[in-house]
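Justification of computing resources. Each target in the renewal requires a structure prediction run like the one illustrated here; the chain below, 250 residues long, is used simply to show the kind of job we budget for.
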Amino acid sequence: MKRVEKLSWLNPLPLLQFISSRGNEYFCEIDEDYLTDRFNLTGLNTDVQYYNYALDLVTDVFDLDCDDDMREQIEKSARHLYGLVHARYITTTRGLAKMLDKYKKGDFGKCPRVICGSHPVLPTGLADTPHTQTVKLYCAKCEDIYNPKSSRHASIDGAYFGTSFTNILFQVYPALVPEKSKERYQPKVFGFKVHACAALERWQEEKRLEMIKRLKDQGITGVFKGDVEEAPDDDMDDEDEEGPIAETRP
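Resulting structure tokens:
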């Protein structure tokens, strides 16, 4: 058995070093009194393996003899525990203030949409259940979400930020809600704007083809004009087969 005096990511200032390490820029530092209040950790013991050891590691009171494999598992559980607690903490007054400070500094990045003019974004989750979706970036100006550029950030669990954080932030700080982007990209051909009617017709045709495909998948055909080929005129065919009728003279 090998002695683990302090695990690497929590030494010597556990939370500060974890927050400052590469790939963890989206996280804010959780107050120690929040971490040590067991009420704030209710229910997490069932979601985290080696919960007690992981909590000791996060709160910097870990002292256990274990081998490398055990050490790796506890460290992984400690990261997961911190993420789950983080999702709860950032919806509190103190947590919102810390995330707001990072938001104003642009620590979470800028919106990749050109028309948004590099507006800052916020990390958000698409699910509150762990291991469901990775973290996304929300832009309040275009009201859309994007994938993080860095692979380090793209692998972070979205549950570590939750689905409510961004909405709560803008409710608490309504002055931060930006004016919605009304400008749109205008397609042009040789400097001339593409006619709106042409764009509308293309959109209608696209929707029409999608509808036809869905109906065909359900075995329904002949709904739209042009779906069924015109049937041949049997009377004309019969007339052609009999030949011309001879005229009779009085």
